[in-house]
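Deliverable D2.4 — example input (structure tokens):
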């Protein structure tokens, strides 16, 4: 198993309901270490750029509006196979399809307000981490 880093975002539906600590506990209990973390209010430009890959999708506009509807917590998670491990801890994008015990099954409100984002590949993780953090802000 390789030690990896992945980007996680605790989304506005979760910060609004004061779930940051409960979500962080899921990461820590399952072996991921939070090696960087900050709470931010994203601008429309930032959120649009972050989700640029989805620009042509019908939900893009609503996704950007949702992501700026309240504060987010952006974080770097580190651990063995962190990209895949985090995706397992989060559960399926649509909470209706998420397994019991996952963050999205327990906390998500809908496919859009699904409480967390996690990088979907190691390459995207590197790009997404550098979108929010400089190397000196990440302390393993
Ligand atoms: P996330 O992992 O942050 O990546 C893109 C987001 O788009 C996704 O989680 C969902 O919250 C959001 N989204 C909204 N509608 C859809 C949809 N129909 N299919 C997939 N993702 C959607």
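Example output (designed residues):
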């Amino acid at each position: 198993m390789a030690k990896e880093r992945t980007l996680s975002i605790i989304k506005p539906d979760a910060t609004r309901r004061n779930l940051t600590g409960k979500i962080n506990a899921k990461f820590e209990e399952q072996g991921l270490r939070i090696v960087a973390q900050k709470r931010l209010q994203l601008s429309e430009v930032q959120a649009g750029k972050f989700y640029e890959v989805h620009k042509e999708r019908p939900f893009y506009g609503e996704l950007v509006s949702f992501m700026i509807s309240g504060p987010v917590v952006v974080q770097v998670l580190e651990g063995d196979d962190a990209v895949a491990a985090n995706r397992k801890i989060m559960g399926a994008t649509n909470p209706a399809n998420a397994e019991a015990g996952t963050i999205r099954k327990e906390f998500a409100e809908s496919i859009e307000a699904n409480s967390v984002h996690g990088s979907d590949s190691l390459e995207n993780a590197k790009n997404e981490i550098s979108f929010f953090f400089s190397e000196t802000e990440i302390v393993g």
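The first helix runs from residue 12 to 16.
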